[in-house]
Predict the 3D structure of the following.
Amino acid sequence: MTVPLNELLATMRVVSLPLSTRFRGVTTREAALFEGPQGWTEFSPFLEYPDDEASAWLSAAIDFGWSPAPSQFRSEIRVNATLPAVGADEVEAVLARFPGCRTVKVKVAEAGQQLADDVARVARVRELLGADCRIRVDANGGWNVDEAEHAIHALAPFDLEYVEQPCAIVEDLAEIRRRVKYMGIPIAADESVRRADDPLEVSRLKAADILVIKAQPLGGIARALRIVRDAALPVVISSALDTSVGLSMGAYLAAAIPALDYDCGLGTAALLAADITDEPLLPVNGVIPVRRVTPSPALLDRHAASPDRVAWWAERVTRAHSLMVG
């Protein structure tokens, strides 16, 4: 569906939230929030994303704010801890922000770091949380096939649940999956789904065992559910470092999936040093609830972006909206 541009801009609030730990090379997270008939919703494509890609995120915001949520199979979602590419000496402090999480997603292949840094980070997680902890690593497409094979061998002793997006290209994902299949370590695809012209190509080429599904980049809950259905692979529902409003969108998506075998990447409010609600969707005993989030007016004011950034986001919404209706 589409919503008139003036209706979107009339309720738009733009916030700039500090992060507790540097993540994806940034220390603040900007987001635009709108209030629709169904409640508050979020539009927060990363700043470097082009307008055609951002238009899918705007479709998702409209879908969540203006359309009823689908039927739910659960009222809470078990979530993983997300560990940025910090030094091994910082791991314990970051994990303390995710109480009760039994799964940790560890960022690896960070620019400027070495494989030894990744190994030390993963080893520290295993040391702190013991044998029962589930560890998955996410390379964000940072390795070529040979680098990925070498890295997976180096990290395999720590009993990996899966390796997420080891390579950027779908054909390379298929090749690394073939190379490490004998090791019993599944391959998950994220960017190859959410940033692809055809999100089902991964499934058709048998390039991954698991799909990482994010509501905003895929155009909203309804479209994401169709992709999950058509791909016929296990899925992990994740976020894009959203505010609690955006995380609630992901939670409703996760709640609408009949079989959800993996902990979801929807606990990332714990990486924010501030949020827009007095009741953020923070992990408690390893889960977050499925509920709508209403921002606090005081927090919206406190974390309001500067006027020039508000103007920047208004222009971005306008361009993305034109691509939706053009």
In short: The two ends are 13 Å apart (CA to CA). The longest strand covers residues 13-23. Residues 76-289 form a domain with the TIM Barrel fold (CATH 3.20.20.120). The first helix runs from residue 5 to 11.
